[in-house]
């Protein structure tokens, strides 16, 4: 499986006016799973610009585009799927994901966040969390990326 490519992807660290980041609980995880929370993210379509894709993904996954980009991680970050998910997750066609991450400031109200707009929602709950807590909420194979984001986007994790 190591000859499989990485799926290109964008991710959104969406900060509220209190400096907290939006995390959403994956609907396909067992209730109460400790590491079922993640940031909104999704695939980059062929020829799509990452800055356009991140806004599209927000609309698809959390039902709103009420946000503005305030930061961007310069590097593309990669993670590999664990062996038990290879050939099953991501359509079985990828070894992991290569991600471009953005920090965004949420410009709407909490009521603008709507997980119920998609007939097959990826998430079943959401909440605001402290950025420093993010790595501990993630599945193990995403933790290193979330640790990097917690450092790189720390300047946005303040009230403003």
UniProtKB/TrEMBL annotation:
CDD domains: NUDIX_Ap4A_hydrolase_plant_like (cd03671). SUPFAM superfamilies: Nudix. The keyword Hydrolase applies. Keywords: Hydrolase. Its cofactor is a divalent metal cation; Mg(2+). Its EC number is 3.6.1.-. A motif (Nudix box) lies at residues 42-63. PROSITE patterns: NUDIX, NUDIX_BOX. One of its GO terms (molecular function) is hydrolase activity. Accelerates the degradation of transcripts by removing pyrophosphate from the 5'-end of triphosphorylated RNA, leading to a more labile monophosphorylated state that can stimulate subsequent ribonuclease cleavage. NCBIfam families: PRK00714.1-5. Belongs to the Nudix hydrolase family. RppH subfamily. This is RNA pyrophosphohydrolase. The lineage of its organism: Bacteria, Pseudomonadati, Pseudomonadota, Alphaproteobacteria, Acetobacterales. The gene is rppH.
């Amino acid at each position: 499986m190591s000859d499989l490519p990485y799926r290109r992807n964008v991710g959104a660290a969406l900060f509220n006016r209190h400096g907290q980041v939006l995390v959403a609980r994956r609907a396909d995880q067992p209730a109460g799973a400790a590491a079922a929370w993640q940031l909104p993210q999704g695939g980059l379509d062929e020829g799509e610009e990452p800055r356009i894709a991140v806004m599209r993904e927000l609309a698809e996954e959390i039902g709103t585009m009420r946000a503005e980009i305030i930061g961007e991680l310069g590097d593309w970050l990669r993670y590999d799927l664990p062996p038990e998910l290879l050939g099953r997750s991501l359509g079985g066609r990828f070894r992991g994901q290569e991600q471009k991450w953005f920090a965004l400031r949420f410009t709407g109200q909490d009521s603008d966040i709507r997980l119920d707009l998609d007939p097959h929602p990826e998430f079943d709950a959401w909440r605001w969390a402290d950025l420093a807590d993010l790595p501990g909420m993630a599945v193990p194979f995403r933790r290193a990326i979330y640790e990097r984001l917690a450092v790189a986007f720390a300047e946005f994790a303040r009230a403003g």
